Amino acid sequence: MDNKRISEIVEEEMIKQDANRYRDMRKILTIPKSIADELDDIFNEFVRIKNSRSIWGLLWRAEEIDDETRMRLEWLLPDENQVNIAVAYLSGKALGVDLVKVVEGIDDNY
């Protein structure tokens, strides 16, 4: 094999690796900082009032905290995908791990 062919193979492999990294990067769950901050406020209020870190309890019993909290959650999480991302985000916080990356400057229609 000549050097030109070797460099072409190396270049092809680097392009494949870059494509794979990009594809993997797109699989990361993200949430806008503004939404994360609002969820944090709601979750911290829930923990304080109910003395519980249960995400299921928060979402299931939001109306028991108060109507404003339920309405805030409905506004923040208007569809099922957003609810799922919020559950992953809050679960990660409750467990002390980052399951969802908080990002600045993206559209709030995550």
Topology:
Elements: H1 3-25, E1 30-32, H2 33-50, H3 55-60, H4 62-65, H5 67-76, H6 80-95, E2 101-103
Give the helix level as a range of percent.
Answer: over 70%
Ends: how far apart? 49 Å
Low-confidence stretches: none
Count of helical regions: 6
> Structural class, from helix and strand content?
mainly alpha
Order of strands in the sheet with most strands: 1-2
Shape: elongated
Question: What does this protein structure show overall?
Answer:
- It contains six helices and two strands.
- It is mainly alpha-helical and 110 residues long.
- The protein has one domain.
- The model has no long low-confidence stretch (mean pLDDT 81).
